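Q: What structure does this chain adopt?
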Amino acid sequence: MTSPPEPIVLLGGGGHCHACIDVVEAEGRFTIAGILDPALTPGAQVLGYPVLGDDAEIPGLRDRQLAFLITIGQIRSAQRRAALFAELSRLGGRLPVIVSPRAHLSRHATVADGTILLHGAVVNAGAAIGANAIINSLALVEHDALVGSHCHIATGAIVNGGAVVEDGCLVGSGAVIREGVHIGAGSLVGAGVTVLRNLPAGSLVRAPPAPGG
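A:
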């Protein structure tokens, strides 16, 4: 007998939340109980789901044994996502891995708590993904690559075999990390950039402007 979907609360009600809602609905393991976002009015709705309030509601929801997913996007910094993850972990909140049925997660790969694989994402054999990461739509994490916690591998980005992306990094849309390259913690690789050499922690690499731009 199939177990009924479990309730889950989403933290953050912006654009990334919209994409996550679609994945949670498609996966079918959870039913969305509501959304926490201090920028939204309690009682408002996000794609038909109620806004329950702000982060002050987390302890009470945790006491009700609800699961959580952090649905705040990550562009410039992982700080807010990482802080929420730390607080939920401190409170004993459950942060499941969410995998779109249209993604491929190798049974020979590992993914830590709170990470989401969106539609079309591929995580191949021997790869390891840390906690609270976003592997966004159509992103590829190749064999034996390591992606740290609180990272965002954005839409269509490629992390090639054996590469290492340390904690708190953003690999922008369409960026390519060459095989075996090491990206230091907290780095930001801009959209469309190809990284061929190791980067120290805190690096910022952007594509050059187009001619005449």
